[in-house]
């Protein structure tokens, strides 16, 4: 930038210097042109009075020539009229004389024929006639036509001499003016030649300077073009570099995207497989839980039935000892045992139904409470049995309790034998102990089943949690992968945008430099073109003005010379015509004089003959 700016400043300074020189040369040319125009104007101003005097003299000469022409015309008319009148009078007189002579001859002949007169009378008549003729001739001669013609001729000759003198003077002045015009024309041609030489030299100098300025401007233009080409090459290289970087970035982003998409698809496939496996495990565990619940409910029902039977059996035994109403209580206990068995059978038959699971779930809590209550009662019964005396049931069946655990227990048959009561009581005690053991085992199995159920429920919860974790974890992992991909893409986009902004900024700077250089170049071109145009226009205008002025002056001089030449030709033609007319008048005058003399001589001869 600094080297380019310094170069542009130096070029601008050179251009300003050349422009000032050019303006100075243009001003000198204008001053020279003004000086030439002033000189030409001075010369024209000097020539104007001569031309005015010459035109005034020509005007006066034209007026005098017109006057002479008018006088000539008048003289011609007068001369013609006088000669015609003279000829007419002479012819008239001659005709009258001839008529008289003929009349006299006829009269004389008649007189001779009729009355011959004497010779004296005839001679007297002749003398009278001759005397009359002589008088007429004298009278005619007294008119003094010859003297008048001589005077007019003398005047005409004097005027002709004057006119010839004036014409010679005019010819001399015309010749003098023609010589002056020739000298002025030669001088003007010399000035024009010098001016043309100066204009040619000036034009050559200006053209040389213009060529030098064009060479300088072309060198500047070439340097600027080279600078622009260099900047364009740098810009192209930068663009190519950015395109390569962008291409690599896109390839890396596409590879990263494909890898992450592949990983995402693999993770989704694994997640789907694990979810399927967990769903199968959950279904299996649910089936196991259902089976355990069914088994647990059956055990609980059997346990409840057994407990109920034992409870009512012991209560019946105690009531037998205490009151007489033992039989009614036995029947009640038996009825209750049958009701329990019926309920158990009813539940055993309806457990296959669809709503058994719902009932078991609802009755599970109630059964827990009942089992706790029964356990408490069993503890109390154990305590009471230890404190009680031994009692025997004569109609006791030792297999009743055992059968009740597997299937619905029938009521024990009543026994009234006292002998067998102790044995039965012992057996019942053993059975009760066994049954207690079985109850303990059943309670332990129930606890184990409950523990297994809790375990299975815990496993189900864990599996559900794992399923939820897998479902949410897959989404989370996918979101994490997507977030990482998006963050990497954003980082790549940020880097790309940063690089792009840097390159665009550099490109804009280079474009701005190119635009400024092109503007400076265009300004320099426009300035050079305008200077050249103004210079050419000024030179052309100056040449046109000077040439027009010279052409106008030359045309004016030519017109004046042509007018003078035409006037001279007219004057010469008029002079030749006047000379020819003078010669014609002289010849006609001499001819008329000769004719008059001849006629006079004839008349004299006739008079003499008549006198003789």
Walk me through the structure.
By secondary structure, the chain is mainly alpha-helical. It folds into 2 domains: 2-229 and 523-611; 268-479, no CATH class. Helix content is 93%, strand content 0%. α3 packs antiparallel against α6. The radius of gyration is 86 Å and the shape is rod-shaped. Mean pLDDT is 65; it is low at 143-149, 324-333, 335-354 and 388-419.
What is the residue-averaged pLDDT? 65
N-end to C-end Cα span: 146 Å
Uncertain runs are 143-149, 324-333, 335-354, 388-419
- With helices defined by DSSP (H or I, 4 residues minimum), what is the helix count? 7
Strand residue content? under 5%
Count of individual domains: 2
Largest sheet, described in full?
A: none
Annotation, overall tally of beta strands: 0
Structural class estimated from helices and strands: mainly alpha
């Amino acid at each position: 930038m600094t080297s380019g700016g310094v170069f542009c400043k130096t070029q601008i300074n050179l251009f300003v210097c050349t422009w000032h020189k050019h303006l100075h040369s243009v001003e000198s040319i204008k001053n020279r042109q003004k000086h030439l125009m002033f000189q030409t104007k001075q010369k024209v101003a000097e020539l104007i009075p001569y031309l005015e005097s010459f035109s005034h003299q020509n005007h006066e000469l034209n007026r005098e020539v017109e006057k002479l022409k008018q006088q000539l015309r008048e003289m011609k008319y007068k001369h013609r009229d006088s000669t015609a009148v003279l000829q007419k009078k002479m012819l008239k007189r001659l005709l009258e004389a001839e008529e008289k002579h003929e009349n006299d001859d006829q009269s004389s002949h008649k007189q001779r024929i009729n009355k011959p007169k004497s010779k004296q009378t005839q001679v007297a008549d002749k003398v009278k006639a001759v005397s009359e003729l002589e008088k007429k001739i004298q009278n005619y001669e007294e008119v003094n036509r010859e003297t008048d013609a001589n005077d007019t001729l003398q005047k005409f000759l004097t005027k002709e001499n004057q006119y010839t003198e004036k014409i010679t003077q005019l010819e001399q002045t015309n010749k003098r003016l023609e010589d002056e015009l020739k000298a002025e024309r030669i001088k003007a041609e010399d000035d024009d030649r010098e001016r043309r030489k100066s204009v040619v030299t000036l034009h050559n100098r200006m053209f040389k300077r213009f060529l030098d300025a064009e060479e300088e401007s072309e060198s500047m233009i070439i340097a600027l073009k080279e600078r622009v080409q260099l900047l364009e090459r740098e810009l192209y290289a930068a663009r190519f570099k950015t395109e390569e970087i962008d291409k690599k970035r896109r390839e890396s982003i596409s590879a990263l995207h494909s890898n992450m998409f592949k990983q995402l698809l693999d993770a989704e496939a694994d997640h789907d497989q694990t979810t399927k496996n967990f769903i199968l495990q959950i279904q299996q565990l649910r089936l196991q839980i259902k089976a355990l619940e069914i088994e647990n409910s059956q055990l609980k029902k059997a346990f409840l039935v057994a407990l109920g039977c034992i409870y009512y059996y012991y209560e019946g035994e105690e009531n037998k000892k205490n009151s007489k109403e033992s039989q009614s209580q036995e029947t009640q206990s038996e009825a209750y045992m049958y009701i329990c068995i019926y309920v158990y059978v009813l539940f055993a038959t309806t457990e296959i139904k669809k709503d058994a699971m719902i009932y078991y779930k609802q009755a599970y809590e109630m059964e827990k409470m009942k089992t706790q209550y029964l356990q408490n009662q069993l503890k109390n019964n154990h305590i009471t049995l230890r404190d009680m005396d031994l009692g025997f049931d004569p109609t006791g069946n030792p297999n009743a309790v055992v059968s009740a655990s597997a299937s619905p227990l029938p009521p024990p048959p009543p026994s009234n034998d006292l002998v067998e009561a102790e044995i039965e009581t012992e057996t019942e005690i053993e059975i009760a102990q066994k049954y207690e053991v079985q109850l303990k085992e059943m309670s332990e199995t129930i606890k184990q089943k409950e523990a297994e159920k809790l375990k299975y429920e815990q496993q189900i919860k864990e599996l559900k949690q794992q399923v939820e974790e897998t479902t949410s974890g897959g989404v989370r992992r996918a979101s994490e992968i997507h977030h990482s991909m998006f963050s990497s893409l954003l980082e790549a986009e940020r880097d790309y945008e940063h690089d792009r902004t840097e390159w665009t900024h550099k490109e804009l700077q280079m474009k701005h430099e190119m635009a400024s250089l092109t503007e400076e170049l265009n300004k320099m071109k426009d300035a050079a073109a305008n200077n050249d145009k103004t210079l050419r226009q000024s030179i052309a205008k100056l040449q046109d003005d000077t040439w027009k002025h010279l052409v106008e002056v030359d045309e004016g001089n030519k017109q004046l010379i042509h007018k003078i030449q035409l006037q001279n030709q007219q004057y010469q033609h008029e002079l030749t015509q006047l000379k020819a007319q003078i010669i014609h008048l002289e010849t006609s005058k001499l001819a008329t004089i000769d004719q008059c003399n001849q006629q006079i001589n004839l008349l004299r001869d006739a008079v003499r003959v008549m006198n003789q």
